[in-house]
Amino acid sequence: MTKRMTSRRVRFWFWVALFGGYSVAVAGVVVDAVGSHYRSLSQVQTTTVDATEAQRQLGAAQIAALHRAQSDTPFRTLPAGETFRVVWPDGSSEVVRIVSQSDAHGARPVDGDVALPLGPIELEVQPVSTEAPRRDPSWMAESIGH
Fold first, then answer.
1. Which residue among 28, 65, 66, 137 is least crowded, i.e. fewest CB within 10 A of its CB?
2. How do residues 68-77 score in pLDDT, each as one tens digit?
3. Which long-range contacts (CB under 8 A, 24 or more apart) does 94-103 make?
């Protein structure tokens, strides 16, 4: 009996550890440049996905440097080869790969992974009646089959 319970516990904790490890490995970094501490950076203020690649590289490198500086482990955060998503001040976003932690052009946009900002959304408001629906007994009788 105890052998059976032990094997169940081992299987349970194995799957918990596997799921937890997978969740941590899949989770990516998203840096939102809409915030005031990123938006005030000189290379980020006017950057969008439509900007030149050089401007996007400089902006992404500044964002990565500030993200590292604010991290608990600055030398291990965003190492070379890691990717992260940047949301530019206009709402557009793209995935950026770190190629060097010390170069001003050390972040390069990944080709083909651009999300444009959502445009203005149009809503159509239609009036709705607040009256309670009338209950017609003859209709109810027909639906029952009497």
1. 137
2. 888 887 777 8
3. 94/49, 94/56, 96/56, 96/60, 96/64, 98/64, 101/64, 101/68, 103/61
